[in-house]
Amino acid sequence: MNVYVRELARELGRAGFEADVFTRSQDAAIPEVVSLGPGARVIHVAAGPARPLPRPALAEHLGAFVDGVERYRERERADYALVHGHYWLSGVAGLELARRWGRPVVQMFDTLGALKNRVARTEEEREPEARVAAERRIATAVDRIIAANPVERAHLARYCGADVERIRVVPCGVDLDLFQPGDPAAARARLGLRAEHVLLFVGRLAPIKGLTTLLRALATAKADGLGPADLRLVVVGGDKDERWDGERARLLRLAEELGVGPWVEFRGPQPQDRLPDYYAAAELCLMPSLYESFGMVALEAMACGVPVVGSRVGGLATTVQDGVTGVLVPEADAGALAAVITCLLHDAARRRRLGLQAAGWARRFGWPCIARAVIDVYGELVPAFRGAARRFPCESLL
After folding, report:
1. 3-state secondary structure 239-294
2. Count of H-run helices and E-run strands, the chain
3. Which CB contacts under 8 angstroms, 24+ apart, belong to 377-385?
4. What does 172-195 look like in DSSP terms, one character per residue?
5. Domain boundaries defined on the chain
6. 76: Cβ contacts below 8 Å, ≥ 6 apart
7. Quick one: CA dihedral 91, 93, 99, 104, positive or negative?
8. How far apart, in whole angstroms, are the C-alpha atoms of residue 314 and residue 155?
9. Which CATH architecture has domain 184-364?
10. What is the pLDDT of residues 27-42, one digit of tens each?
11. Which SS3 state, helix, strand or coil, does residue 344 take?
């Protein structure tokens, strides 16, 4: 979500628009205003403690956040044409700001609480009812909703009561200058990876991302003949949310119990400009998620020419072309995942073919094309934006 907001704001700025991104201040040492490039900037608003907070605790500071945005607007005499909210907390704030300013509001959700609760396996994994209720209210009140794919559009209508006539499908994008095929041997050398086979997982260590299924799949593959392989599963990512600190320890214990501990290496969060090396180093990018609204990691991997093996859930079912840019398996099916991993590791020619097709597919999703589609949505609500999409240099229409 952060990548999406940043890249969209930058594209809007490059095309001559002015885009202000308001976010809660998490570090008092960071300046109030930070430039993202021409015409785009981030404004840090004081609302609650200036430090990272667990997501459930953020709701109580929404009022202060809205008031802070309003104070900034009045001080700078800014006049915004519309409000674009991302995630449910921003949707709550966006509705109030739009009401005060008399402006239309566009919303994206990233994920839906109702769907996360459908796959939650413990009470700790469940999203609060306040979030689910807020998403229903936002979905029925905003002027437009942007869904990442037709699957999300259907979910918004079914679980949030959204009017499908107000939903527009615009996929996520990828930085094609940053994410592109690289030299696997050179990438492995830079990362200190010496295993013969490298598998990659990128994402938060939340149960919904399916790492438990992935570890069980590796154990199954090992028992079915992959045992002698010189293999490494590199786990990149994490979360500032302290409640997931214990998840990493649990996963490490599970890996040891399953006998695949020596294969697994947790590397924590990485800067985005380092991610292309991780993708280039990998033979497969694995996304065993229980739920994904889109799957930006899949798009980044494919842009780097790496096949994706993922669950057939949510947006992954459309982001990954099964049998063309990767392979899809039923969610939570460790046996099916193990079989595909083993098969692809033994078939270099098929991996190369999938990787080449993946890189070609991903080129349709450059950020200028995405920004062009988003500005078309804005133009439905703000006459001044109509026809402005031609400012975006888009090589291929989605």
Report:
1. CCCHHHHHHHHHHHHHHHHHCCHHHEEEEECCCHHHHHHHHHHCCEEEECCCCCCC
2. 16, 13
3. 377/106, 377/144, 377/146, 377/168, 377/170, 378/81, 378/82, 378/106, 380/144, 381/82, 381/104, 381/106, 381/143, 381/144, 382/81, 382/82, 382/104, 384/81, 385/81
4. --B-TTTS----HHHHHHHHT---
5. 2-174+366-391, 184-364
6. none
7. negative
8. 9
9. 3-Layer(aba) Sandwich (3.40)
10. 999 999 999 999 999 9
11. helix
Distance CA 143, CA 381 (A): 8
d(CA 91, CA 109): 8
pLDDT, residue 56, reads: 80
- Give per-residue pLDDT as tens, 300-345: 999 999 999 999 998 899 999 999 999 999 999 999 999 999 999 9
Q: Which of 59, 109, 55 is nearest to 241 (CA)?
A: 55
DSSP state of 164: G
For residues 105 and 241, which has the higher predicted lDDT (pLDDT)? Answer: 105
- Weakest mean pLDDT among 52-61, 84-93, 275-284: 52-61
- The CATH number of the domain covering residues in 2-174+366-391: 3.40.50.2000
Report d(CA 304, CA 39) in Å as an integer.
29
Burial 29-56 (b: 16+ CB within 10 A, else e): eeeeeeebeebbbbbbbbbbeeeebebe
Does position 60 have pLDDT exceeding 80, yes or no?
A: yes
**What is the full DSSP assignment across 93-139?**
HHHHHHHHHT--EEEE-SS-HHHHHHH--SGGGSPPHHHHHHHHHHH
pTM score, two decimals?
Answer: 0.90
Contacts 24+ apart (CB under 8 A), 250-256: 251/205, 251/211, 251/212, 251/215, 254/212, 254/215, 255/215
Q: Is the dihedral of CA 307, 312, 313, 316 positive or negative?
A: positive
Instruction: Round to whole Å and give the CA distance between 38 and 9.
Output: 10
pLDDT of residue 351: 97
Domain pair 2-174+366-391 / 184-364, same fold: yes
pLDDT at 242 over 90: no
Specify the residue for token string 């098969």. Answer: 343
- Amino acid 55 reads R
In the numeric block, which tokens belong to residue 268?
A: 């924590």
